[in-house]
Write a structure and sequence with these properties.
Order of helices and strands: HHHHHHEEHEHEHHEHEHEHEEEEEH
Radius of gyration: 23 Å
Helix content: 25-40%
CATH superfamily of the largest domain: Aldolase class I
Structural class: alpha/beta
Shape: globular
Number of strands: 12
Distance between the termini: 60 Å
Number of domains: 3
CATH topology of the largest domain: TIM Barrel
Bound molecules: iron/sulfur cluster
Strand order of the largest sheet: 1-2-3-4-5-6-7-8-9
CATH architecture of the largest domain: Alpha-Beta Barrel
Number of helices: 14
CATH class of the largest domain: Alpha Beta
Length: 379
């Protein structure tokens, strides 16, 4: 492949790797490794852009890029995992729309992705169907649903990856949503900055920047994914005024260590992407080998909080059929009388007098005033 072709996102998509033979142009595979991939291939689809395959360590079977993208026989040994852990099927008022919260919806505009991630929440409900942008008619019905429901102020375009549609099709959807008076914010969920950074073109950015406020959340899971190409893609989006957030998934053997997560979060900040969520890997079919105990995630967040800037610390959450539930460690240790007893990032204990609600006529009680002065003089 020549360098010019590699920079073309359509070429990358057309030449995705889907066979072991093609994979061997990028990495060395032992016979047992080939068997592991082959055994799971019939069950869960896999496809990898040449760009992303080029990030794999050719000789290390435990490479974090390989683990995210290569089918593995372990996917077949999961008695606990369920196909739809968020019960998304039950939250669809119309086809393509998922609504859990009253004021926002996820709008699945296609089922294609540049790389089929082994941990994908929709690996059972989306993979395996023929790759497709959804029909204009279905998409139009989704837009009409948003238009008719005045409470919806925030629309997340998802899928699949919405940025695998053509610029024209993306603009058609974004422009119509933007014109709906009660839609205040449009968000795009796309992993292309990580798995297909060539997709972020000048033309795409020029088009998107007409529809602010528009946000983009992407997914980097390991610092190895941050490359000159992904950095360039994120810079282009940021220059177009699009705030960027990152939603990592915590996965065993990939990023379940303090060192890896700290490096990832710092690198993300450097390329202008705010670490936003760290997701607990759900009890999802075919992911037993990737799931980590919740204690591990909390330990990682504890080792980030205070040890790196607050902007670089993601919220650790579990997504459930009832919405996202924070799992972050608790820094409120207890109550002593009216005081809250708190723990600092490095384990020091702080007692915070709980402010009473004052009416205009009230004066501040003496002990509270004294505590306040004391803290001001030491702070
Ligand atoms: S990019 Fe997102 S939607 Fe697509 S396979 Fe990966 S996790 Fe799933």
């Amino acid at each position: 492949m020549d360098k010019k072709q590699q920079k073309d996102w359509k070429w990358q998509l057309k030449n995705r790797i889907t066979t072991i033979g093609q994979l061997e142009d990028f990495i060395n595979l032992s016979p047992p490794e080939k068997e592991r991939i082959g055994a799971a291939s019939g069950r869960f689809e896999w496809a990898i852009t040449p760009y992303y395959a080029g990030l794999m360590d050719p000789d290390n079977p435990d490479c974090p890029i390989r683990k995210q993208a290569l089918a593995d026989v372990e996917e077949l040994h999961d008695n606990l995992g369920v196909p739809d852990p968020l019960d998304e099927g039950k939250h669809q008022p119309v086809e393509l729309i998922i609504q859990v919260y009253p004021d926002r919806v996820a709008f699945c505009v296609g089922n294609r992705c540049a790389v089929y991630c082994r941990h994908c929440l929709r690996k059972e409900t989306m993979f395996g169907e023929e790759d497709a942008d959804f029909s204009q008619e279905k998409i139009q019905r989704g837009i009409e649903y948003v238009r008719e429901n005045n409470d919806i102020r925030d629309v997340l375009l998802t899928g699949g990856d919405p940025l695998l549609m053509s610029d024209e099709r993306i603009e058609n959807v974004v422009c119509q949503l933007h014109e709906i008076p009660h839609v205040e914010v449009i968000r795009i969920g796309s992993r292309t900055p990580c798995t297909l950074p060539q997709r972020i073109t000048d033309e795409l950015c020029e088009m998107l920047k007409k529809y602010h406020p528009l946000y983009l959340n992407t997914q980097f899971n390991h610092p190895r994914e941050i490359t000159p190409e992904s950095e360039r893609a994120c810079a282009m989006l940021a220059e177009a005024g699009i705030p960027l957030g990152n939603q990592s998934v915590l996965m065993a053997g990939i990023n379940d260590s303090v060192e890896v997560m700290k490096k990832l979060c710092r690198e993300l900040m450097r390329i202008r992407v705010r670490p936003y969520y760290l997701y607990q890997c759900q009890i999802l079919s075919g992911t037993r080998h990737l799931r980590t105990p919740i204690e591990r995630g909390r330990e990682i967040i504890e080792q980030l909080q205070g040890y790196t800037s607050g902007l670089a610390v993601p919220k650790y959450v579990l997504d459930t059929p009832y919405g996202k539930i924070p799992l972050s460690p608790n820094y409120v240790v207890g109550r002593e009388g009216d005081d809250f007893v708190l723990k600092s990032w490095d384990g020091k204990v702080w007692r915070e007098p709980n402010p009473v609600e004052l009416s205009h006529e009230d004066t501040v009680e003496e002990p509270q005033l004294k505590a306040c002065r004391q803290r001001c003089s030491t702070g």
